[in-house]
Design brief:
This protein is an alpha/beta fold. It folds into 3 domains: about 100 residues, no CATH class; about 60 residues; about 190 residues, 2-Layer Sandwich (Nucleotidyltransferase, domain 5), CATH 3.30.420.10. It has 15 helices and 7 strands. The strands form 2 sheets. Strands 5-4-3-6-7 form a 5-stranded mixed beta sheet, sandwiched between helices. The longest helix has 16 residues. The radius of gyration is 28 Å and the shape is elongated. The termini are far apart. About 25% of the residues are buried.
Length: about 375
């Protein structure tokens, strides 16, 4: 059998005629032109085009017949009265597509004009909506190129968006390091015995399969009364956001009491087995965070990073960096509400993640803890 790339116009006319007039199978067409049946299928799927869109009020616009051979509506006797999306194959148009691909493939592009337009529009809309390239590609079945190829297209100027449009696409010159170090004055009075970072490492060694929750405040301007508390389940990339006004240790404890009230202490112990955070004075009441405020039952373990070692909790630091897309620096958050927190949290947790094999944090959370806990948590 011959290879796919050597199909010519005569072969395409035979394919066109056979599927339109005779409703021939891939095997029958294969015998006529001497190509493998899979080549016929690839030709039809690659070079078909949408000849008629479904009306906007149609709930399911995809016809199941277009999901299998011949993938087009050429020979369908119902197409004149069909309200589904319709695909068509034409030999002349298919041959033009093939010639175009042959030219642009030598220029580093393996897309038809329609595919290029689809990719370009998806990137423009997705990046404007603060979505990652990974999520844009994995969520759009009409994008026919890989994620590395998309990045190459962006770098080479083949699409409209530029490197500067990417999150963190622009790298600024590093600031000069200051010799001045600071620490909270309250920290000198806090006893963190058995709760420092080396104790955390020892705990993980003794409990190797435990999931860790990292905690931090997202930086805000000094004049703001409100602050955003960020919690992230490290393994699942699942983020929780809480708006706290005039933050202090008691209000941080209240956040965890509220969570326990929603999901119950047994679920709390599963979701929050270990918490790692920095030395912010608002986190000093480890007893209040660790124990049920009524029964005293242990519900989590809290550990602190070393001073000036934010890299010891990289997941929450990275998440806070990503959250700057929604809460820019030097912009007040005092006008925000808990609903705003919920909206951002829900949006971020529904983005596809490469390290989760293309799943979203919400999907990962449900797989690990169950849908009931997620629904209660998001109340």
């Amino acid at each position: 059998m011959k290879k796919f790339e050597h199909l010519n116009f005569s072969h395409r006319k035979i394919i066109n005629n056979q599927i339109t007039t005779h409703n021939a199978t891939a095997i029958k067409i294969s015998q006529l032109i001497g190509y493998d049946p899979t080549t016929i299928s690839k030709e039809l799927k690659r070079n078909r085009y949408v000849s008629k869109e479904a009306p906007s009020n149609v709930k399911d616009p995809i016809c199941k017949k277009t999901l299998r051979f011949p993938y087009v509506c050429n020979g369908c006797h119902k197409k004149d009265n069909c309200n589904k999306r319709q695909y068509k194959y034409e030999a002349t148009r298919a041959n033009q597509y093939a010639k175009y691909r042959l030219i642009v493939s030598r220029q580093g592009i393996d897309l038809s004009p329609e595919e290029h337009k689809t990719l370009d529009q998806a990137l423009i809309e997705g990046l404007a909506d603060n979505k990652s390239i990974y999520h844009i590609v994995k969520s759009n079945s009409e994008i026919k190129v890989s994620i590395p190829t998309v990045y190459r297209y962006i770098k080479e100027g083949i699409v409209t968006v530029t490197v500067e449009d990417l999150p963190h696409g622009t790298v600024y010159k590093k600031r000069k390091k200051s010799n001045k170090k600071y620490d909270y004055s309250q920290n000198t009075k806090i006893d963190r015995s058995n709760r420092i970072f080396i104790d955390y490492l020892a705990y993980l060694q003794a409990h190797p399969n435990v999931f860790v929750v990292e905690m931090d405040f997202l930086g805000s301007i000094k004049s703001d009364a409100k602050s955003i508390l960020t919690l992230i389940i490290k393994n699942l990339h699942f983020v929780m956001l809480f708006l706290i006004e005039n933050k202090n240790s008691a209000k941080v404890v209240n956040v965890f009491n509220s969570i326990q009230g929603k999901i119950g202490i047994e679920a709390f112990q599963k979701v929050f087995p270990v918490i790692l955070t920095d030395r912010d004075p608002c986190f000093y009441d480890y007893e209040g965070i660790e124990a049920d405020n009524e029964t005293g039952e242990l519900r989590t373990r809290l550990f602190y990073c070393d001073a000036f070692k934010s890299n010891q909790k990289p997941s929450v630091e990275n998440m806070n960096n990503q959250l700057r897309r929604y809460f820019p620096k030097r912009k007040s958050i005092d006008n925000l509400t808990e609903q705003d927190m919920f909206n951002v949290m829900n949006y971020v947790n529904n983005l596809k993640i490469s390290s989760l094999s293309g799943a979203t944090p919400n999907e990962a959370f449900i797989r690990v803890y169950g849908e009931d806990i997620l629904n209660n948590l998001m109340k």
